[in-house]
Write a structure and sequence with these properties.
Layout lengths: L22 E3 L2 E3 L5 E2 L2 E4 L6 H4 L10 H8 L5 E7 H5 L11 H16 L3 E8 L19 H11 L6 E4 L9 H6 L11 H10 L6 E3 L2 H4 L16 H4 L8 E8 L7 H7 L1 H4 L4 E7 L6 H12 L3 E4 L26 H11 L8
Parallel strand pairs: 4-5, 4-11, 5-6, 6-7, 7-8, 8-9, 9-10, 10-11
Antiparallel strand pairs: 1-2, 2-3
Helix pairs in contact: 5-7
């Protein structure tokens, strides 16, 4: 997991731990001392939709106490889905939930996570072109607002090295060329991954960037969205990052396409030998734990970080309305959540990977 390194030559302190640091080194994530980090985290959904729907800043508590509850599971990374219209304060999002108010709320939550030694993964989740209100996810980032979103986000967090930028949630329905360079085939001008990387780096920000492949972030192969060869898909088309801080982000769910170890061996393992991989979402809704357990074992065997969907209270203990790891914000787990918690707790908090 993520370490909380002491300053070189300093005496032990009883004050709050130093903020976490994560960066890419070759095929690994490492901390400030160069030690390998394997993140074990959760997604915290809500800030992508509550603001655009006009009823709140988030869904559920975003307090320090709620973050401390996550830490009790040995969670050391939280992925935070965001809405570009809310962040930029455009397209009619109520003023109380957008612009500066929204940006400050995101920054405050990131500070809480970092204070508990957790890495914050900021994810562009909901977007829309032109004057459309962002009320869902599109095929790809949009050229109208997404580069501006990342310019603003990267500027705000340039000095926080406990942050990772997840540039677009789940690209789908486009070609690899469109994924990289942008196109107009979804019915609007998209922003390719290269333009999003460029927007981040132009600010001077050097944090790692997560790059989700096609197929709703599950298909790494080419030559098309469902091709079998990873060398002709993500590996061939990935953008150029002058800081060499690229991470492959994959989303893996039971029953959706690539959900077996043999598929992961074929499509993900070859890439993991060259760049770090983060399973940015995973889960199952079958009232069982076999898939989550198998994936976590496979991820650990390949030093791949795992982020479960989602730390959002569900009244359905099986999560059949959508994968959830908790039934309440006191940390009571769902059936799959109990297996995930046990796995996370099997690794000492703050221990090196």
């Amino acid at each position: 997991g993520t370490l909380r390194p002491a300053a070189a030559g300093s005496a032990p302190s009883t004050s709050k731990p130093l903020l976490p640091v994560v960066r890419v080194e070759g095929d690994r994530l490492v901390d400030a001392r160069g030690r390998t980090v394997v993140l074990r985290g959760v997604d915290r959904s809500g800030m992508e939709y509550a603001c655009a729907q006009g009823w709140g800043m988030a869904d559920g508590p975003m307090t320090q106490a709620s973050v401390d509850t996550m830490e009790s599971w040995h969670i050391d990374a939280v992925r935070l889905p965001l809405n570009e219209d809310c962040w930029l304060g455009i397209n009619g999002v109520p003023a109380g939930y957008s612009g500066r108010a929204y940006r400050d709320a995101v920054a405050a939550y990131v500070r809480k996570l970092n204070r508990d030694g957790m890495i914050a993964i900021l994810d562009l989740h909901w977007n829309a072109p032109g004057d459309e209100l962002a009320t869902g996810q599109e095929d790809m980032a949009d050229a109208d607002h997404s580069p501006a979103f990342w310019t603003s986000v990267a500027t705000r967090f340039e000095g926080d090295h406990g942050v990772i930028f997840d540039l677009y949630n789940e690209p789908h329905g486009i070609t690899w060329s469109c994924w990289l360079h942008g196109c107009s085939t979804p019915g609007y001008e998209t922003a390719g991954m290269q333009s999003l990387v460029d927007a981040v780096r132009a600010t001077g920000a050097t944090q790692p960037v997560m790059l989700a492949p096609l197929g709703w972030a599950s298909a790494t192969g080419g030559p098309d969205e469902y091709g079998p060869s990873p060398d002709r898909g993500w590996s061939r088309w990935r953008p150029v990052d002058p800081d060499h801080q690229e991470i492959l982000s994959v989303h893996l769910y039971a029953g959706n396409g690539c959900d077996t170890a043999s598929c992961w061996d074929t499509t993900i393992a070859p890439i993991a030998a060259r760049v770090p991989v983060v399973t940015g979402e995973f889960g199952e809704t079958d009232c069982a734990t076999a898939f989550d357990t198998a994936l976590l074992e496979w991820d650990d065997a390949h030093a791949i970080s795992s982020v479960a969907w989602a730390w959002n209270a569900s009244s359905d203990s099986c999560g059949s309305s959508g994968p959830s790891v908790i039934t309440g914000y006191d940390g009571t787990p769902t059936v799959p959540g109990a297996a995930i918690r046990a796995r996370y707790l099997s690794v000492p908090a703050g221990a090196p990977a």
